[in-house]
Design a protein that fits this description.
Layout: H1 2-13, E1 17-31, E2 34-41, E3 50-53, E4 57-64, E5 72-75, E6 101-107, E7 113-119, E8 129-135, E9 149-158, H2 163-173, E10 182-185, E11 204-207, E12 212-219, E13 225-230, E14 235-240, E15 243-250, E16 252-255, E17 260-266, E18 275-283, E19 296-302, E20 319-320, H3 330-338, E21 358-370, E22 384-390, E23 393-395, H4 402-408, E24 440-442, E25 445-448, E26 453-460, E27 469-473, E28 478-485, E29 504-505, E30 507-510, E31 514-521, E32 526-532, H5 535-539, E33 543-548
Parallel strand pairs: 1-4, 3-8, 9-12, 11-19, 18-20, 21-26, 23-24, 25-33
Antiparallel strand pairs: 1-2, 4-6, 5-7, 7-8, 9-10, 12-17, 13-16, 13-18, 14-15, 14-17, 18-19, 21-22, 26-31, 27-30, 27-32, 28-29, 28-31, 32-33
EC number: 1.10.3.2
Organism: Aegilops tauschii subsp. strangulata
Function: Lignin degradation and detoxification of lignin-derived products.
Length: about 575
């Protein structure tokens, strides 16, 4: 036993360096009977899996051989002191220009589970994305029985049109962008779409009776929250956003763009004589026509011990379908999200800040900009363009990187530090909207001291319709301490907060016509983006950024920039 402990303690202390090269280039891909050129990494769609263990140093050299500016975000990776590697264009770096390269270096600290990487400029993440699989340190088991096999399951969105043209046209006209033509599972639209050849275009999960599989589910869709269910097979959720939770078993889960969910699926004990659809379809409360209301399916099929065919699979079996909630089933969504709780054990504690240093109240929602003089637009009215804002500020990306400006102390003319902590003009947020729906523009940031305990309430509004807004915070995990419908009541609602075992995430849905309260500790110096993860709303300005100042100790300071940091 002693020898085993020594071996384990040695292996646990060791951390490796894992290196990848990402060649970003275009290739032709055919889906739904149409071919088009898309931007991909290493000729793969979805892109390659980045695999590492907790504690490893990850080094990824990105070479841009495409015609677009590029940057890659490692979604959910804490990036402690390594903000230069976070990836959002014009926030932590200037983009990698065509023909240029950049090496992203970061250490995986205190995280294990599923995250993902994606392009973080314009709408290029439509096809530039892939999984990040973080295994526990060597010798450290999962806090649940180890599965027989692990399979990444990435939801995406497919347009027949060029997505860069789709968003460019929308920004020109001020209207909503054309919606996608299909959802995909691991890049494949599956059998439910017209002109989607059954076998080559369908993701199949082949299982053995009695075995347990871990699906590492990632929602990489641009604009849609998704319900997901597997016919005849309950799903046990063990991890969200690379944080273990108290296991819950569900028939259907909800996952917003940006989120990840690890589930255990146990195959039936004996050959069932059927195949099963795995299906995903959107959740939306938006006006009809503004989202892709289609359903994607993959197939779960069993190895048939009695089949004479070499593959051991029988194509002539009945196919069973799951039942998904209605598209606007908000009560399902709120019941589901309320069930998610941190593991909160000695080994995996929930370090919820119990006291708060800085409190913020942000309204998040849609709004308008006036049309150009004498122009006509395709916004909510002929003389307006769609916009989106946090506390009525529609964020304008600078032309240089915010992190560089902060680090060099040359922020003047790039950003101001006066982002409003509360709405400047309060109104009945979820009631009748105000007559004036125009929002202001600005590159305004919040400055936090190192170590501040922050509470942020995000309040959805009903301006131009009450919608759910999934928000992602870079550089931090946060605890979801409360949520509710209607207007947040600062006198009554905090009494209902869960400060014991709230779920810990990096992306959370602000409920339609409701609010969510999060807490986090500002223990990561740098400039950190926070934005809606629906790309259409990001394009309209539903984003902001936080500056976290250096702490007093050496290990509380932002590392200096790498020598190959791209220039604007």
């Amino acid at each position: 036993v002693a020898a085993m402990v020594v071996v384990l303690s040695v292996s646990v202390a060791e951390s490796a360096t894992v290196e990848y090269q990402f060649d970003v280039a275009t290739m032709n891909v055919t889906r739904l009977c149409g071919s088009k050129s898309i931007v991909v990494v290493n000729g793969q769609f979805p892109g390659p899996t980045v695999s590492a263990r907790e504690g490893d140093l990850v080094v990824v050299r990105v070479v841009n051989k495409a015609q677009y500016n590029m940057s890659i975000h490692w979604h959910g990776v804490r990036q402690l002191r390594s903000g230069w590697a976070d990836g959002p264009a014009y926030i932590t770096q200037c983009p990698i220009q065509p023909g240029q390269s950049y090496v992203y270096k970061f250490t995986i600290t205190g995280q294990r589970g599923t995250l993902w990487w994606h392009a973080h400029i314009s709408w290029l993440r439509a096809t530039v994305y892939g999984p990040i699989v973080i295994l526990p340190k060597l010798g450290v088991p999962y806090p649940f029985a180890a599965p027989y096999k692990e399979v990444p399951l990435m939801f995406g969105e497919w347009w027949k049109a060029d997505t860069e043209a789709v968003i460019s046209q929308a920004l020109q006209t001020g209207g909503g962008p054309n919606v996608s033509d299909a959802f995909t599972i691991n890049g494949l639209p599956g059998p439910l779409y017209n002109c989607s050849a059954k076998d080559a275009d369908t993701f199949k999960l082949k299982v053995k009776p009695g075995k347990t599989y871990m699906l590492r589910i990632i929602n990489a869709a641009l604009n849609d929250e998704l319900f997901f269910s597997v016919a005849g097979h309950p799903l046990t959720i063990v991890d969200v956003d690379a944080v273990y939770i108290k296991p819950i078993t569900v028939e259907t889960l909800l996952i917003t763009p940006g989120q990840t969910t690890n589930v255990l699926l146990t195959a039936k004990p004996s050959y069932p004589g059927a195949t099963y659809y795995m299906m995903a379809a959107p959740y939306s409360t938006a006006a009809s026509g503004t989202f892709d209301n289609t359903t994607v399916a993959g197939i779960l099929e069993y190895e048939d011990p009695g089949s004479p065919s070499s593959a051991g699979f029988n194509k002539n079996l009945p196919v069973l379908r799951p039942t998904l909630p209605q598209i606007n089933d908000t009560s399902f969504v709120s019941n589901y999200t309320a069930k998610l709780r941190s593991l909160a054990t000695e080994e995996y504690p929930a370090g919820v800040p119990q006291e708060v240093d800085r409190r913020f109240f942000f309204t998040v929602g849609l709004g308008t900009h006036p049309c150009a003089v004498n122009g006509t637009c395709q916004g909510p009215t002929n003389d307006s363009r769609f916009a989106a804002a946090v506390n009525n500020v529609s964020f304008v990306l600078p032309t240089t990187a915010l992190l560089q400006s902060h680090y060099t102390g040359m922020s003047s003319g790039v950003y101001s530090s006066n982002f409003p902590a509360v709405p400047q003009s309060p109104f009945n947020y979820t009631g009748t909207p105000p007559n004036n729906t125009n929002v202001s523009n600005g590159t305004r940031l919040v400055v936090l001291s190192y170590g501040d305990a922050v509470e942020l309430v995000m309040q959805g509004t009903s301006i131009l319709g009450a919608e759910s807004h999934p928000f992602h915070l870079h550089g931090f995990n946060f605890f979801v301490v409360g949520q509710g419908f209607g207007n947040f009541d600062p006198a009554k609602d905090p009494a209902k907060y869960n400060l014991v075992d709230p779920v810990e995430r990096n992306t959370v849905g602000v409920p339609a016509a409701g609010w969510v309260a999060i807490r986090f500790r500002a223990d990561n110096p740098g400039v950190w983006f926070m934005h809606c993860h629906l790309e259409v709303h990001v394009s309209w300005g539903l984003k902001m950024a936080w500056v976290v100042q250096d702490g007093s100790l050496p290990n509380q300071k932002l590392l200096p920039p790498p020598s190959d940091l791209p220039k604007c």
